[in-house]
Design brief:
Elements (H helix, E strand, L loop, with lengths): L1 H22 L2 H16 L10 H25 L29 H7 L4 H12 L4 H8 L3 H16 L9 H17 L2 H5 L2 E10 L11 E2 L1 H12 L4 H4 L1 E5 L2 E8 L2 E13 L2 E8 L7
Helix pairs in contact: 1-2, 1-3, 2-3, 3-5, 3-6, 5-6, 5-7, 6-7
Length: about 290
């Protein structure tokens, strides 16, 4: 059993990555990975599992599909925009490899929200993990043809919602430094100059804290909003650079340091910030 536990631990980051892509919740992903381990350990002969990674991946996918289906109604009642739980680089070294993937960027995760639970699972398992449709059909409880069709429909939906391509970290860091300097001046025009014409600001307070109830579009509106927020205190000085969902962003320390009061991920296009995703919901911060 100790050898089996050690083998499972080598697969844990992969399993959490699978669960996170499906649910958008790190907590749900970690719970699903742990439940998969319990199911494995209860098998009469777990050592007989030939493809341990494949068995665990399928188990986590099934568990997360159930969670995603049950969460659909709750998300419809969510106050304001819904954002995935942010994953901060360096907080768990085992997950840092997961954050190297483009499909866990906040913008990409948010686009997945346009899919039905079955479409999302089919897409993640096939496109991100290259699982054959026969195995995906087993997870979804459908025929192989239906699994293939759901993945195809998911691709069509996502094709209509392109995600800004990633930029080198050094470039993004330079843009964020310019933005921080502009924000510190309190000049909305200076802030707007660092924002892309198509910029959008999305904040998720979950109804627990104050946040914009709708996405804010356009450099002038976003700049005024951010300058207004910064004007309430020493916000620019308190922001800590961080890697959030694999891209540069910020953390706003809480009153006692941990957990943070907010986490923000940023997308950059053409040398300017094109999206800011701010998570303020305390239940999503750790």
């Amino acid at each position: 059993m100790s050898d089996l536990a050690a083998a499972f631990e080598t697969h844990r980051p992969h399993l959490v990555g699978v669960g996170y892509r499906i649910t958008g919740s790190l907590a749900d992903a970690e719970d699903a990975a742990q439940e998969a381990w319990l199911r494995l350990s209860r098998l009469p002969d777990p050592g007989a599992v030939r493809d341990l990674r494949g068995w665990l991946t399928t188990a986590v996918a099934r568990l997360c599909l159930d969670r995603l289906r049950s969460a659909a109604a709750r998300r419809e009642q969510h106050v304001g925009p819904w954002l995935p739980e942010p994953v901060v680089g360096g907080a768990d070294p085992a997950l840092d490899a997961v954050l190297q993937a483009d499909d866990v960027r906040m913008a990409a995760m948010l686009v997945l929200e346009r899919l039905s639970p079955d479409q999302r699972v089919a897409f993640v398992l096939h496109e991100a993990l290259d699982l054959p449709f026969a195995e995906i059909a087993g997870v979804l409880g459908c025929t192989e043809a239906t699994a293939r069709q759901r993945a195809s429909r998911a691709r069509q939906v996502l094709a209509d919602a392109p995600v800004p391509p990633p930029v080198p970290d050094a470039e993004a860091a330079r843009v964020l430094a310019r933005f921080g300097a502009a924000l510190a001046t309190g000049d909305a025009r200076a802030v707007a100059e660092v924002l892309h014409p198509d910029v959008v600001f999305v904040s998720d307070g979950g109804g627990a804290v104050r946040a914009a109830l709708h996405p804010v579009h356009g450099p002038a509106k976003v700049a005024r909003l951010l300058v207004g927020l910064a004007g309430r205190g020493d916000l620019p000085a308190r922001l800590r650079p961080a890697t959030v969902n694999g891209t540069p962003g910020w953390l706003l320390p809480g009153p006692d340091g941990d957990p943070p009061a907010a986490a923000a991920a940023v997308a950059v296009r053409d040398g300017r910030i094109v999206a800011i995703y701010g998570v303020l919901d305390p239940s999503k911060l750790r």
